[in-house]
Amino acid sequence: MSARNRIYQQQWWGNVIRYGVLVVIALLMLLPLLWLVSTSLKSPTEDIFQFPPQLLPLQPTIDNYVRVWQTNPFGTYLFNSSAIALLSVGLNLIFCALAAYPLARLNFRGKEVIFSLIISTIMIPFQIVMIPLYILTVQLGIRNTYIGIIFPAIASAFGIFLLRQAFAAVPKEMEEAARMDGCTELGLWWHIMLPSIRPALMTLAIFVFIGSWSDFLWPLIVLDRPQLYTLPLGVANLAGTFSLDWRLIAAGSVISIAPVLGLFLFLQRYIVPTEAGSGVKG
């Protein structure tokens, strides 16, 4: 066997081992999701607690989904979660981008101190600020409203940090060219900077959407009107409605996570490295 063939064979086996390990890790990560979907499709005659476990349902049925949808206002829950998540994403992107731009591109006294203080808030658990936020929400009269739920997610230190780093990577030549053309500061931010950091914006949008969509604690505290419940609260309500029928709870959980998976699959093609300096010719 020649040296070239040995090198090729070593590379081939190396690729097989790497991909095999990745496949095993992927299956381990997907196993809880597959088990959830399998449980939601099992008929009442199947034992979901049998050992060894039966991953594939013997008699697949969608009756669990139909029953959950007909006996609970999941359409209302879905609308509430969608509206709250979309508003949270939009407001978070706007306010984080407005805060991150001067921290990255403008020079003013105390900029580094302000940025350090913002970053330090990441270490503060939400449970510490939860009570002050609730008191402020009640005083503002926005309890039991969409605004009251969105209020803590209007901006985030992580979003400011992420966009600040993205703004800092934009070449100064693009900024100088826009200023020479008479572009205002706000126009520069809107027409030049934001399009240049589109992947960072998409990444932040996914994080904010997932966080808002799956948030359970804050809506539970600030809401007591069932018509404003989000999907996590609706799924938690299934435990009392059906006395812990895990098939129906699994069906409700699948309904609640399906939009998030769909959004990620749709937006992942936008989360790719882009060369911000592609518009700059040397």
Helix/strand layout:
Blueprint: H1 3-40, H2 63-71, H3 74-105, H4 111-120, H5 126-140, H6 146-150, H7 157-168, H8 172-180, H9 185-196, H10 198-214, H11 217-222, H12 231-241, H13 246-267
Helix pairs in contact: 1-13, 2-13, 3-7, 3-10, 4-7, 8-9, 10-13, 12-13
Describe the structure.
By secondary structure, this protein is an all-alpha fold. 70% of the residues lie in helices and 0% in strands. The model is unreliable at 274-282 (pLDDT under 50).
Note the main attributes of this structure.
single chain, 282 residues, mainly alpha, 13 helices, 70% helix, flat, disordered C terminus
Helical amount among residues, as a percent range? over 70%
Low-confidence sequence ranges: 274-282
Q: Say how many strands there are.
A: 0
- What is the CA-atom radius of gyration, in angstroms? 25 Å
Helix/strand structural class: mainly alpha
In whole angstroms, how far apart are the ends?
50 Å
- The pLDDT mean sits at 86
Largest sheet: none
What order do the helices and strands follow? HHHHHHHHHHHHH
Number of helices: 13
Instruction: Report the sheet-strand fraction.
Output: under 5%
